[in-house]
Specification:
Layout: H1 35-42, H2 50-56, H3 69-76, H4 171-190, H5 193-214, H6 224-241, H7 243-262, H8 269-294, H9 300-325, E1 329-331, E2 335-339, H10 340-362, H11 366-394, H12 410-434
Antiparallel strand pairs: 1-2
Helix pairs in contact: 4-5, 5-6, 5-8, 6-7, 6-8, 7-8, 8-9, 8-12, 9-10, 9-11, 9-12, 10-11, 11-12
């Protein structure tokens, strides 16, 4: 089926397009979107007659202008011998030509042009009009790709990136950064628990800064100073005073942000406060549940550990299952790379790992641990989809380029932020059993 040329021509493209005479040079640099083609498209059209071209010449090369005897002799010469089959021909040396040449030359120059001042013939230069010549078509130069453009070998977006993952990431850098982040969390978690609070506060501040930069693409300008200060305060209140202080910290943050924003004027107030509310709830409020988990006396560090392990198992199982068996898209309009097979792999890996780990650390029945893993995995996938929806709505791929191979810090916290409230609620139910 033919379609219109996206570069401005009204001629059909594809197999229905009539073959043009071969150019005396290869067409590798004249592909769609190439700089050579764009440069030629910007040049003004200048028409030369053979006589004018002869007068302007300074060399002794043949004149290859349509209508000139040198041009006609060059095209009417016999075909050059071909050594072996054309490697770019679809049928090779045998078989019929799948792209036969049309009868006659549709691009031959008319025998005599119209007189000056006379009305032009509409069918003279119309490719779809009648062909006004009965001369046989010139022979095709050897090695010419018949009817289609030669395929480009090599190149592509993955050329030269053999160490990149399927998602286009730098895999060694991603692994190194992931290990560094894991050490940054686990070392203070099992040594000085108060230092974990400092790591959490820094992560919240960086995440809010990334979100503030991202929403600027939607022309939202939330005041970041009261937002970041209130977010860090919210996490600290959750650490020292529990869930009620977490809600109080969120309300204080929103109130301080509203007062600050009102001082700048009412223009765009609703848009900026909507973005500020999203940032305050999405980052510090959800991250505050990690502080609640770590603040539990006795086994707080273990609660954080099982939550992080469940999230890591969910991500790893989903990636392995999706890369090897993924066929059915889960949410193609939000995250095209996610599949239902990958989701099943996430849930299965998190359920098995959590069942074993919670049974060993908390002496809880394995089915409760499996339920915990399933719930945390579903929450982690929903968190990943939620941030993908936000980024797609804002027209960005990553929140920032802060972490090599990962993007921004929020690109790593998206699944954890939804997982920690789920883990806190489920472990609160298991707490009487653990005690």
């Amino acid at each position: 089926m033919s379609h219109l040329d996206s570069y401005g021509s009204i001629e059909p493209r594809g197999r229905d397009r009539e073959a043009r005479p071969a150019l005396p040079w290869p067409e590798h640099d004249l592909g769609p979107g190439s700089r050579v083609r764009q440069a030629y498209a910007e040049q003004p059209v200048v028409t030369w007659t053979p006589e004018e071209y002869d007068e302007a010449r300074t060399d002794d090369q043949p004149t290859l202008v349509p209508g000139h005897p040198d041009f006609e002799r060059a095209w009417s010469s016999g075909p050059a011998p071909v050594d072996g089959p054309d490697p770019h021909h679809p049928a090779g040396a045998a078989g019929p030509d799948p792209y036969p040449e049309p009868e006659g030359d549709p691009y031959a120059e008319p025998a005599a042009g119209p007189e000056p001042g006379s009305a032009p013939d509409p069918s003279a230069h119309d490719p779809s009009g009648p062909v006004g010549t009965t001369e046989p078509a010139p022979e095709r130069p050897p090695g010419r790709w018949r009817g289609r453009r030669r395929p480009i070998r090599g190149g592509g977006s993955a050329a030269g990136h053999g160490r990149s993952s399927r998602a286009g990431r730098n895999l060694p850098a991603a692994i190194a950064v992931g290990l560094a982040l894991g050490a940054l969390i686990l070392v203070p978690l099992f040594t000085v628990i108060e230092a974990f609070l400092g790591v959490l506060a820094v992560a919240v501040a960086v995440g809010m800064w990334e979100m503030g930069r991202a929403v600027r693409r939607a022309d939202a300008r939330p005041p970041m100073l009261p937002l970041i200060a209130g977010g860090v305060l919210t996490v600290g209140l959750a650490w020292w005073s529990g869930p009620d202080a977490l809600v109080l910290g969120l309300l204080v943050t929103l109130a301080a942000t509203l007062v600050w924003r009102l001082a700048e004027g009412k223009a765009g107030l609703g848009r900026d406060m909507t973005a500020a509310t999203l940032i305050a709830v999405y980052v510090p409020f959800l991250a505050g549940f990690a502080a609640l988990l770590a603040a539990v006396p006795g086994d707080g560090h273990l609660r954080v550990l099982v939550t992080l392990v469940a999230v890591v198992l969910s991500d790893t199982g989903g990636y392995a299952a999706g890369a090897n068996f993924g066929k059915r898209k889960m949410a193609p309009t939000i995250s095209p790379s996610k599949s239902w097979e990958g989701f099943y792999g996430s849930v299965g890996a998190a359920a098995l790992g959590s069942a074993l780990l919670i049974w060993l650390l908390f002496d809880v029945a394995p089915w409760w641990g499996a339920l915990f893993g399933v719930a945390v995995s579903v929450a982690a996938v929903l968190g990943d989809l939620a941030e993908s929806m936000i980024k797609r709505d804002l027209g960005i791929k990553d929140m920032s380029n802060l972490l090599p191979g990962h993007g921004g810090l929020m690109d790593r916290l998206d699944s954890i932020l939804f997982a920690v409230p789920t883990a806190y609620l489920l472990l609160a139910v298991f707490a009487p059993v653990v005690s």
